[in-house]
Amino acid sequence: MNPAVIGVFVPIILFLVIGLVMVSSAYFNYRVRQTLVDKGLDPQSIREFLEHKRDPYMLMKIGIIAIAFGIGLGLGLILQDHTDKDYWIPFALFTFTGIGFVIANIVTRKLESKSNM
Q1: Of 6, 27, 32, 43, which is most buried, counting CB atoms within 10 Å of its CB?
Q2: Within 13 Å of residue 27, how many CA atoms lie on the same side as its CB?
Q3: Which of 110, 17, 29 is nearest to 64 (CA)?
């Protein structure tokens, strides 16, 4: 396929997908609220139910995972250059990102247990 044609369709599809996600989100939020009203909840109960509880450690989790992803990418690129094998980058990315998720979970649990004491 011609690269110019692909270049034209990428932004069009991007905006269509973003619009579809926004409309779907608004529709499903409306359906949730409508279901809560149909069940007979008062406005204060609905507000409490829909109130989002924020995770105080979310940015730290994202940071740990991003650092692990970067280490995996860098190590994968280095290994691919030295061995001329194509499988090192995805292997290192998945491995180190998984390790990052595990470390983020362990650190968060330790911090939550300290804050609950």
Answers
A1: 32
A2: 6
A3: 110
**Are residues 75 and 93 in contact, defined by beta-carbon separation less than 8 angstroms?**
no
Instruction: Judge if pTM exceeds 0.90.
Output: no
Enter the DSSP assignment of 100: H
Contact between 88 and 56 under an 8 Å Cβ cutoff? The reply is no
Summarize pLDDT for 21-73 with one digit per residue, the tens: 999 999 998 898 888 888 888 878 777 777 777 788 899 999 999 999 999 99
* Helix, coil or strand: residue 94: helix
> Which residues, including other chains, have CB under 8 Å from residue 86's CB and lie 6 or more apart?
80
The rounded Cα 29 to chain-centroid distance in angstroms is 20
- Contact between 19 and 70 under an 8 Å Cβ cutoff? The reply is no
How remote is the C-alpha of 53 from its chain's centroid? 17
CB 92 within 8 A of CB 76: yes
